[in-house]
Amino acid sequence: MAADDCRRYRAGHREEPTVTATPAQVLHGHPVGPKPDAAVCIGCGSPLRETDIVFAYAYRCADAAQWDIPRLFCHGCAPGRIRSPTLGTTELLVGGRLGSIALPTPRSSRLCLTELALRAFSPPTEGCAP
User: Fold this and answer.
1) I want to staple 110 with a disulfide (CB 3.0 to 4.6 A). Which of 10, 14, 31, 32 is the partner?
2) Segment holding 6, helix H or strand E
């Protein structure tokens, strides 16, 4: 009886199923770098290549669906924390390696994040107003 009620509710509301994932899982495979095959450390300017250990600062505003990764760091330049959290924005620092992902439509590859672990996290309820 409960299963029938559930089917009727879903049929009437047309809800999409949801999946819960950690930020590290969501960012795994996320393309990075200004060019398809090039990335640089924002701290020292050294080039970052596939298989290098990297740290990435990523954020997502409360009303956004996509994550943005504006900063990559080499192992030596990576900060240990998020220095100035922003209210209304989920911010994190993840560490991992650079890999590559094949993009089928342009038939090209891009550097991406892989083997990620969370290093620092700031929820949208903390920080200063933007």
Assistant:
1) 31
2) helix 2-13
Look at the block and give the residue holding tokens 């969501």. 26
Which of 92, 99, 96 is closest to 57 using CA atoms?
92
Structure tokens at 116: 């990620």
DSSP string, 8-24: HHHHHH-PPP-----HH
Q: Please give the residue that has the higher pLDDT: either 48 or 14.
A: 48
Secondary structure class of 27 (helix, strand, coil): helix
Residue 7: pLDDT above 80?
no
Phi-psi category of residue 22: left, alpha or beta, with phi > 0 → left and psi -120 to 50 → alpha = beta
Read off the pLDDT band of 1 (50, 70, 90): very low
**Paired strand residues for 60:** 90
Please report, for residues 28, 94, 112, 124, the alpha-carbon distance to residue 117 in angstroms, rounded to integers and kept in the order given. Answer: 10, 6, 14, 20
Q: Which residues pair with 86 in a beta bridge?
A: 128
Q: How far apart are CA 34 and CA 120, in angstroms?
A: 24
The pTM of this model reads 0.79
Q: What distance in Å separates the CA atoms of residue 93 and residue 24, rounded to the nearest whole number?
A: 9
